Amino acid sequence: MRTNNMKKFICTLSLVSLLFASCNKYLDVPPANNIYDEQIKELLANGSEEVQQKIVAAMANKLVQYMSYVDNGNQYSTGSASYSNYYMNTLEYMHNLLGSDIVYGYGQDNDSRWYNLENLGNNRDDVVRGFWFLPARSIAEANKVLMYMTKEAAENSKLAADGRARCLIVRAYNYMNLLETFQDAYLQGGKDKLGMPWYEEFDLNKVASRDATAQETYSKIIRDLEEAIALLSKAGVGYTSAATEVEDFDLGVANFCLARAALWTGDWAKCISACSAIINSGAYSLMKPENYGGHNIGESWAADDILILPEDNGFISVRNNSECILGYRYGSSFTGNVTALNSVYRNIFSNSSAGTSGYPSHARIDDQLYKKIVAEDCRQDCFRPEAIGSYKYATTTAQIGKYCNLKFAANRGLMEDGKTHYEEADKVGLQ
């Protein structure tokens, strides 16, 4: 909160410590441990490129975490120990289970037991709170940085233009998350219903109006994304492949978000234009079939002969994912406990979520959808229509049912250097 008596914003993004440690000689500010809003704005407008670069890096570099926010402290979102309730990408994953194409079940022969999800309609606080808090917190963090990455600053500095673009992308993307979760589908009757409370700036005293329709909220989302695209272009930020440059905001990320917003609102021309910009950039290409999900290179699918390496899987190792537009480095602090997330919810070879009678309760594809995938489509290889027998992990034996998901499968550990070390696999477990 800013008041007349406290006109300083000691940045929660570690701005003060970083800025003074690296460029104190450029600042003549008494007292030496404080830096005020107006001085930051002045430096962004008229400071040297080196100073501007440090300010933007301190404020904007960590914004990438709010594209897949994790409440590591579990202090705000749920009060629950379940990974599914305080990881943004896991909430997305659980949301998919509300449909009929991805089912969450177990049982080698029992095809009637598929759903195991507490949905939003039951008003369970530990479920609903995460869906609301994680995007809302991300919007607030973006708005904090926008206090400094103003339109005026962006006009005077390419670096500030880059920083402002990141804020706008984070804000737009997370407003989309809220709308997609809590409002009726735009093209299925939701267009003229209420939108989301819209905040242009970080101000705890300001109460946003809920009078805006979903149409008006989406128009602001699209406005933000179109401005972000213009700012990135001005800043000289183009398209970069996540296989070489991860954790970055670029035109690929901005156009992807714009395409998603346009798709939801039925603006087909805008959606096609954004997708064409990504495809025509030449920065991305379809993943190689051998990297699309986990592939067994062992002797057979007999339990003791299975060998699926994580470094060969583009969905685990970004080095082999030429489709990825925005990713995270392995072991990055921005991803939280992703290793546990992958083990519990995605990797069928983890024993962490063994269900009834020893069957892991991992998601699988609905058999009706599986049968609609043509044999020539490499995505069919991400599932195994036959059951895997008594698979032993550590000291636990579990049954892996038919139509299981191999997209994130691996039965060797991935080390920090992105390679598998067989001799260490038993020590570290699955990553």
What does the secondary structure layout of this molecule look like, with pairings?
Layout: H1 15-23, H2 37-46, H3 49-60, H4 88-96, E1 102-104, H5 125-146, H6 151-156, H7 158-182, H8 214-235, H9 251-265, H10 268-280, H11 338-345, E2 363-365, H12 367-370, E3 383-384, E4 388-393, E5 396-400, E6 404-405, H13 422-428
Antiparallel strand pairs: 1-2, 3-6, 4-5
What does this structure look like?
This protein has 431 residues and is mainly alpha-helical. Helix content is 38%, strand content 5%. It has 13 helices and 6 strands. It has helices at 15-23, 37-46, 49-60, 88-96, 125-146, 151-156, 158-182, 214-235, 251-265, 268-280, 338-345, 367-370, 422-428; strands spanning 102-104, 363-365, 383-384, 388-393, 396-400, 404-405. The strands form 3 sheets. Strands 1-2 form a two-stranded antiparallel sheet. Strands 3-6 form a two-stranded antiparallel ribbon. The protein has a two-stranded antiparallel ribbon with strand order 4-5. A hairpin with a 2-residue loop joins β4 (388-393) and β5. α2 (37-46) crosses α3, α5 packs antiparallel against α7 and α8 (214-235) packs antiparallel against α9 (251-265). It starts with 14 loop residues before the first helix and ends with a helix.
Largest sheet: 2 strands, antiparallel
Strand segment count: 6
- Bin the strand percentage: under 5%
Q: Specify the overall morphology.
A: globular
Helix content: 25-40%
Strand order of the largest sheet: 1-2
Mean pLDDT score: 76
Class inferred from helices and paired strands: mainly alpha
> Between the first and last Cα atoms, what is the distance in angstroms?
41 Å
Order of helices and strands: HHHHEHHHHHHHEHEEEEH
Please report the number of helical segments. 13
Q: Please compute the radius of gyration using only Cα atoms.
A: 23 Å
Unreliable runs = 1-34, 107-118, 352-356, 421-431
